[in-house]
Automatic annotation (TrEMBL):
The keyword rRNA-binding does not apply. This is ribonuclease H. Residues 314-390 form the RNase H type-1 domain. One of its GO terms (molecular function) is RNA-directed DNA polymerase activity. Keywords: Endonuclease, Hydrolase, Nuclease, Nucleotidyltransferase, RNA-directed DNA polymerase, Transferase. PROSITE patterns: RNASE_H_1, RT_POL. Residues 1-81 form the Reverse transcriptase domain. Its EC number is 3.1.26.4. It comes from the Eukaryota. Belongs to the beta type-B retroviral polymerase family. HERV class-II K(HML-2) pol subfamily.
Length: 390
């Protein structure tokens, strides 16, 4: 079709709309004039495929029979779909980078394939960092040594990793993996296979990977909130894919002192609003354990500290006062020396808002006094940041 991609997509959609209604449980995806037809049984597939072909031919499209793929593997939009697995076709990654536009194109291609390959935000961070800066698209860029190593890891992943088609008889599960701040998750299915029947069969079917945004929020974000955001994205995605929810969500949190207990997890869920909101209406199970599989053992369990550092009562210790001036940009902390009983001060000029200047004073206080102390501030913002930073 010699017209815009938008018009082509709209026109083909209008032709296939009656086919969707008549094809029963068949699923028909299309991008421009590439059409993928799926159905639970061979008879339903044949019926849906005939309806699709007839609708397109009646509209004047010419279909080349040799391009109709009736047997696996089916090639569609860069993917090679087998009866059980989904792998990438040979995808040429443009590794020669000379401009910001080249970086945009490279990162765009990698963002497209990462849900199937499990390319984590940590893997791609050296490439994403090349996007920083508001220059023109023609502005020069070059791969850093870290970015070159990242591309090598990506090439290895493209040749060795795969996703799977889902089994309609199995429920969906979700697990959180990785280490802070690069948490990620996996949507998967699990089939219990007795040892005597395994014969190379894998209990794990990877459906898709879920990632947090590389561009982190400017607000102070707790690990619990990162977990909540991952779960929110995963629940939204599984509804898109399958129209259902997970039967189990695995949150294998580690503590500095060992493994988290079920009672600790329940306390965490009760105390954190972000987790409460993201798990609203969830009727499945929450597990603190990982399924027994090498892919889960290879991934680092993220560690959470539940020990509270702040005291809710004043301490018998040094008291430090902080303040800042909008006009002079001065960032001040002052305290009474317990040895000399003289007032001391640390004054610095900090560009930015008074809140930022006072926050800088708080940072200097923590750097100056390693022992416990009382912190007095008149800024709600600073008090909130210190509280969340724990």
């Amino acid at each position: 079709m010699k017209n815009s991609p938008v018009i082509c997509q709209w026109y083909v959609a209008s032709l296939l709309s009656p086919v969707h209604a008549a094809a029963g449980q068949a699923i028909i995806h299309h991008y421009m004039d590439d059409v993928l037809v799926c159905a639970p049984t061979d008879d339903e597939l044949t019926h849906a495929l005939d309806l699709t072909i007839n609708a397109l031919i009646a509209a004047g499209f010419e279909l080349q029979e040799e391009k109709v793929q009736r047997m696996p593997p089916w090639k569609y939009l860069g993917l090679e779909i087998g009866k059980r697995t989904i792998v990438l076709q040979k995808l040429a990654i443009k590794t020669k980078v000379s401009s910001l536009m080249d970086v945009h194109q490279l990162c765009g291609a990698l963002n497209w394939v990462r849900p199937w390959l499990g390319l984590t935000t940590e893997d791609l961070a050296p490439l994403f960092n090349l996007l920083k800066g508001g220059e023109e698209l023609s502005s020069p860029r070059a791969l850093t040594p870290e970015a070159e190593k990242a591309l090598e890891r990506i090439q290895d992943a493209m040749s060795s990793r795969q996703a799977h088609q889902f089994d309609p008889e199995l429920p969906f599960k979700f697990i959180i993996l990785g280490k802070l701040p690069y948490l990620h998750g996996m949507i998967f299915q699990w089939k219990d296979i007795p040892k005597k029947d395994r014969d190379g069969k894998d209990s794990l079917s990877i459906i898709e990977w879920v990632f947090l945004n590389h561009q982190r929020s400017k607000r102070m974000t707790r690990p619990q909130e990162l977990v909540a955001e991952l779960i929110r994205k995963a629940r939204f995605r599984i509804r898109e894919l399958a129209g259902c929810d997970f039967v189990r969500i695995h949150i294998p949190i580690g503590l500095r002192s060992g493994q988290i207990s079920k009672s600790m997890l329940e306390h965490l869920l009760q105390e954190n609003e972000a987790l409460q909101f993201t798990l609203d209406s969830f009727t499945g199970q929450i597990s603190i354990h990982r399924p027994a599989h090498k892919i889960f053992n290879q991934d680092v369990k993220f560690v959470l500290s539940l020990k509270e550092v702040r005291s809710r009562r004043p301490l018998k210790a040094l008291t430090v006062f902080t303040d800042a001036s909008r006009r002079s940009h001065k960032s001040v902390l002052t305290w009474k020396d317990p040895q000399t009983q003289q007032w001391e001060a640390d004054v610095d000029e900090v560009e930015g808002s008074p809140q930022v200047a006072e926050l800088a004073a708080v940072v200097r206080a923590f750097e100056r006094f390693p022992e416990p102390f009382n912190l007095i501030t008149d800024s709600t913002y600073v008090a909130g940041v210190v509280s969340r930073a724990e």
